C-alpha cells in the first residue's frame, strides 16, 4: 500500500476511478441478475430481493466512502500539504527570503517531481543568489573603489581647472605684456593685474634713478596717487629693501563711506635682472582680506613678467631713438639714398629720394624721421634710361656691387643723377646694399652753360670781329671812295655795337643773378614805351607788320624801371621778328587784368617744341631744330626778360604750337590813383 501511495498521482487516481467504476458495474449486474431471477416470485420475495439489492448498493456506497476516507483523503491531504509547503516556500523565495532545501519523503508522483523541480530551482536560485550576493559584494567593493577614484579624479579635475584658470590668467597677462600697446601704454597691464588678482585698485610705479618717474594708476584718484608717492611707508620700505611686503591699515575718516574699514596693501618690487636694480613697483590694494603667501608668490611671478616687458620697452625706446637718429641723419643728407635689405627683401629710401622721384608716394602717417618703403618699378617709370637702369638695379639686387658710376636722367632731362653702390656688412656677412643718388643737375647745367657759352661767344664774337677785321683790312690796304669808306665804317660801327650789346647782356645777367642790378623805378604809362618800341622795330623790318592792340582811352600805369621795360619789350619783339623768318604779323596787346597789367607779344612763326618749354628761360639755352639753328643769338634774351619781370614782382609765361607761332604774356602790378596821389 505504501508503495502504491508513492506511485504516480495520475496512476493512483485512475486506479481509484477504475475500481469504483468496476465495483459499480458489478453491483449493477448482480442487482440486475438478482432481480431478473425474481420472476414468478411473490411480492415479499421481490421486496426481499430489492432490500438485498439496496444492501448491495449500500455496501458499494460504503466501500466508496471507505475508499474516499482511507485512500483518497490521505492522498489529497498529502498532496495539499506538499502544495501548501511549496506555496509557502515559493512565497518566501519570491520575497527573497531563504528556505530549507531539505525534504524527507521521496515521492515519485507528479507532485514529487514538481517538488524536486521546485527544490532544484530553489537550489539554483539560492546558488545564483549566493553568486549574485558575492558579485554584489564585489561590485560594492568596486563601487567604493570607483567612488574613491571618482573623488580623486574630481579633486584632480578641480586642481586642473584651478591650474587652467591660473594659466589662462598668466597667458592673459603675458599677452597683455607682449602686445604692442603695452610698449606705449601700461594702463592695460595694470588693469589686467587688478582684475586677475581681484583687487579694488592699484598702480604701476615706474622708477628711474631711485625716484618715481611716473605712475600708471587703476581706479585711483589724483589725491590717492600723490599720497602713495609721498606718504606710503610701505612703498618706501620696499624701495629701500627691494623685497616684497604687505600690510593693512585702518581708515577711520573716509567721508565717502562714513564708517571705518581696513585696506590690505601689497607692494612688489620689479627688478632689472641684468643690472639688479629697481625699475618699478607694483602696488595693489583691496578691502576684503589680506594677501596670502600663494597670492604674493603669484604676484612675484607677475613682477618678473612685468620686468621683462619693461626691459623690452626700454630696448624698444632705445632702438626707436637710434633708428630715428639714423633716419634723421640720413634724411639730412642731400644725396638720395636707397637701402636694399637682402635678408628682409625690403627696399627703403630717405626723404631726398622721394623729393627726386615724385612718383613715389609718401603715406600720411609717416613722419620725416623714418625711412620709407620704396617700389622700384615706380622709380623706373621716371628714368629716361629705363632698361639700362633696370639692368643695373637687378645686378645690385643679386648681391653684386657694380663698379664706377651709373649716370641717368629723370623726367626728360629735368634731373641728372649719378648712382653708385656700396655694400653694408656686419662682421664678415653682407647685410645689404646702399645706392647713393647724387643730383648732378647743377653741375650738368653748369657744364652745358659753359659749353653753350663757349659756343655762343665764339660764334657771336667771331662774326662781328671777322666783319670788323675784314673791313678795317680793306680800308687800310685799299684806296676807297668816300661813299664806300663811309659804308664800311657804318658796318664796323654796327658790328661794334653788336659786340657791345653782347657784352652788356653778359654783364646784365651776371648783375641780375648776383643781386647787384639796380633799378631806377618810377611811375609811367606803359603804353608810351610799347608804342616807342613798336615803332622802332617796325622800322627795322619790312617783312613784318607790328600791330598794337590797346585801348588808348585807359591809362596803364606801372611803377618800374623804364629802361628795363624797354629792354624787356625789345627782347620779346626782337624774338618775335627773328623766329618769324617768313614775315607776317606780330600782335602786341595791352589790357587790364584785375589789379595787374597784362601785355603780350604774339607771332605766327616757327613755334617752340614742347620738349624745349621747361628750359626756355635758362641761360644760353637755344631751341635745337633745323629752322631755329640758322637764326643767331646768345640764348640770354629770355633769361634777362625773366629776371626783369621777377625784379618787378611780375610773371612771364609762354604758350606755343610748333609751326603755328608763339605768344609771350607778361603780368605786372598796376599802380592805383590813390598811390599816385600819395606819391
Automatic annotation (TrEMBL):
It comes from the Bacteria. Residues 129-163 form a coiled coil. It is an enzyme of class 2 (transferase). Residues 456-672 form the Histidine kinase domain. Residues 77-130 form the HAMP domain. Its EC number is 2.7.13.3. The keyword NADP does not apply. SUPFAM superfamilies: ATPase domain of HSP90 chaperone/DNA topoisomerase II/histidine kinase, GAF domain-like, Homodimeric domain of signal transducing histidine kinase. It catalyses: ATP + protein L-histidine = ADP + protein N-phospho-L-histidine. Keywords: ATP-binding, Cell membrane, Coiled coil, Kinase, Membrane, Nucleotide-binding, Phosphoprotein, Transferase, Transmembrane, Transmembrane helix, Two-component regulatory system. Gene3D superfamilies: 1.10.287.130, 3.30.450.40, 6.10.340.10, Histidine kinase-like ATPase, C-terminal domain (3.30.565.10), PAS domain (3.30.450.20). It is found in: Cell membrane. Its main location: membrane. The chain crosses the membrane at residues 12-35, 55-76. It is a multi-pass membrane protein. One of its GO terms (molecular function) is kinase activity. CDD domains: HAMP, HATPase, HisKA. This is histidine kinase.
Amino acid at each position: 500500500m505504501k508503495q502504491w501511495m508513492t506511485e504516480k498521482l495520475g496512476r493512483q487516481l485512475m486506479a481509484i476511478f477504475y475500481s469504483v467504476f468496476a465495483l459499480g458495474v458489478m453491483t449493477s449486474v448482480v442487482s440486475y441478475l438478482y432481480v431478473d431471477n425474481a420472476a414468478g416470485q411473490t411480492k415479499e420475495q421481490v421486496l426481499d430481493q430489492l432490500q438485498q439489492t439496496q444492501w448491495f448498493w449500500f455496501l458499494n456506497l460504503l466501500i466508496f466512502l471507505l475508499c474516499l476516507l482511507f485512500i483518497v483523503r490521505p492522498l489529497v491531504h498529502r498532496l495539499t500539504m506538499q502544495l501548501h509547503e511549496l506555496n509557502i516556500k515559493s512565497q518566501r523565495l519570491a520575497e527573497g527570503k531563504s528556505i530549507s532545501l531539505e525534504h524527507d519523503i521521496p515521492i515519485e508522483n507528479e507532485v514529487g517531481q514538481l517538488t524536486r523541480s521546485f527544490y532544484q530551482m530553489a537550489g539554483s536560485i539560492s546558488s545564483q543568489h549566493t553568486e549574485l550576493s558575492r558579485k554584489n559584494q564585489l561590485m560594492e567593493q568596486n563601487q567604493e573603489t570607483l567612488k574613491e577614484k571618482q573623488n580623486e579624479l574630481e579633486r584632480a579635475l578641480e586642481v586642473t581647472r584651478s591650474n587652467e584658470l591660473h594659466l589662462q590668467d598668466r597667458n592673459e597677462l603675458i599677452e597683455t605684456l607682449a602686445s604692442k600697446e603695452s610698449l606705449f601704454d601700461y594702463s592695460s597691464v595694470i588693469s589686467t593685474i587688478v582684475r586677475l588678482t581681484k583687487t579694488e585698485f592699484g598702480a604701476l610705479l615706474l622708477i628711474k634713478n631711485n625716484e618715481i618717474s611716473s605712475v600708471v594708476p587703476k581706479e585711483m584718484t589724483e589725491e590717492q596717487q600723490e599720497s602713495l608717492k609721498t606718504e606710503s611707508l610701505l612703498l618706501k620700505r620696499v624701495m629701500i629693501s627691494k623685497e616684497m611686503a604687505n600690510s593693512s591699515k585702518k581708515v577711520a575718516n573716509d567721508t565717502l563711506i562714513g564708517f571705518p574699514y581696513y585696506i590690505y596693501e601689497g607692494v612688489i618690487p620689479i627688478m632689472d635682472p641684468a643690472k639688479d636694480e629697481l625699475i618699478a613697483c607694483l602696488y595693489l590694494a583691496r578691502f576684503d582680506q589680506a594677501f596670502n603667501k600663494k597670492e604674493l608668490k603669484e604676484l612675484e611671478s607677475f613682477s618678473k613678467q612685468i620686468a621683462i616687458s619693461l626691459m623690452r620697452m626700454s630696448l624698444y625706446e632705445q632702438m626707436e631713438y637710434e633708428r630715428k637718429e639714423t633716419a634723421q641723419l640720413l634724411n639730412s643728407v642731400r644725396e638720395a639714398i636707397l637701402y636694399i635689405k637682402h635678408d628682409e627683401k625690403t627696399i627703403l629710401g630717405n626723404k631726398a629720394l622721394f623729393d627726386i622721384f615724385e612718383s613715389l608716394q609718401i603715406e600720411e602717417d609717416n613722419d620725416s624721421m623714418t625711412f620709407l618703403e620704396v617700389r622700384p618699378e615706380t622709380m623706373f617709370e621716371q628714368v629716361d634710361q629705363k632698361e639700362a637702369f633696370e639692368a643695373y638695379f637687378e645686378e645690385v639686387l643679386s648681391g653684386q656691387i657694380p663698379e664706377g658710376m651709373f649716370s641717368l636722367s629723370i623726367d626728360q632731362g629735368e634731373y641728372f643723377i649719378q648712382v653708385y653702390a656700396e655694400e653694408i656688412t656686419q662682421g664678415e656677412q653682407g647685410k645689404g646694399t646702399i645706392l647713393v643718388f647724387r643730383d648732378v643737375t647743377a653741375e650738368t647745367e653748369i657744364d652745358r652753360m659753359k659749353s653753350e657759352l663757349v659756343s655762343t661767344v665764339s660764334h657771336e664774337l667771331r662774326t662781328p670781329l671777322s666783319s670788323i677785321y675784314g673791313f678795317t683790312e680793306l680800308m687800310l690796304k685799299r684806296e676807297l671812295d668816300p661813299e664806300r669808306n663811309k659804308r664800311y665804317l657804318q658796318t664796323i660801327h654796327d658790328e661794334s655795337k653788336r659786340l657791345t650789346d653782347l657784352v652788356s647782356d653778359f654783364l646784365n645777367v651776371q648783375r641780375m643773378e648776383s643781386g647787384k642790378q639796380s633799378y631806377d623805378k618810377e611811375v609811367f604809362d606803359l603804353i608810351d614805351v610799347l608804342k616807342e618800341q613798336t615803332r622802332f622795330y617796325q622800322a627795322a623790318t619790312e617783312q613784318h607788320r607790328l600791330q598794337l592792340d590797346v585801348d588808348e582811352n585807359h591809362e596803364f600805369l606801372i611803377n618800374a624801371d623804364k629802361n628795363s621795360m624797354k629792354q624787356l619789350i625789345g627782347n620779346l619783339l626782337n624774338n618775335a621778328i627773328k623766329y618769324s623768318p617768313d614775315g607776317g604779323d606780330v600782335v602786341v596787346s595791352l589790357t587790364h587784368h584785375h589789379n595787374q597789367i597784362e601785355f603780350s607779344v604774339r607771332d605766327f612763326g616757327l613755334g617752340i617744341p614742347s620738349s624745349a618749354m621747361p628750359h626756355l628761360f635758362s641761360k644760353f639755352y637755344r631751341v635745337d631744330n633745323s629752322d631755329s639753328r640758322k637764326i643767331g643769338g646768345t640764348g640770354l634774351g629770355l633769361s634777362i626778360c625773366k629776371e626783369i619781370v621777377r625784379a618787378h614782382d611780375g610773371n612771364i609765361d609762354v604758350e606755343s604750337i610748333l609751326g603755328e607761332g608763339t605768344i609771350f604774356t607778361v603780368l605786372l602790378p598796376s599802380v592805383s590813383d590813390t598811390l599816385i596821389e600819395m606819391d
